[in-house]
Amino acid sequence: MKNQIYLLLAILILSPVTLIAQDNKVKWVSIEEAEKLNKENPKKIMVDVYTDWCGWCKKMDKETFSNPVIAEYINENYYAVKLDAEGKEEITFNGTSYKFIAQGSRGYHELAAGLLNGKMSYPSIAYLNEEMQLLGAVPGYQTPSGIEPLLNYIVEDKFTSESLEDYQKTFQSKLK
User: I want to staple 149 with a disulfide (CB 3.0 to 4.6 A). Which of 21, 35, 36, 171 is the partner?
Assistant: First the structure.
């Protein structure tokens, strides 16, 4: 009986820590899941286009997407998708099937090429609006302080009325 009480106390004490830790991570979904969720509750879609061999992609996962402020903002305002630019599985998105195209020793996925307008650079983040139309793609590693204003700029639809440079002049960061 004494051991059961200790076990129960340990579970109660450690559970909130586990829940908090899980909330600090981006909730990644497949592009098909994002499309389905978007029909039920429209949000913008952020697609992290990466490869398994990309060191900067791993750094971005570790330093940018694991930042609690960035992860919380993404989870609240976007459907976040990870897309392997060299993934071999066929993907159906927005009524079109996309396949892996073998080329040289690696190849590429048609969906990644479409989202990046053929400019295969990793990491890159493609942004889609609530109608699943491509707004644009931003290549390269992004720090938390670099991506935060961009995420807000897109969610707030400020790209329709002002430049990112002007927006950044008045942007108030939540990073500490």
Answer: 171
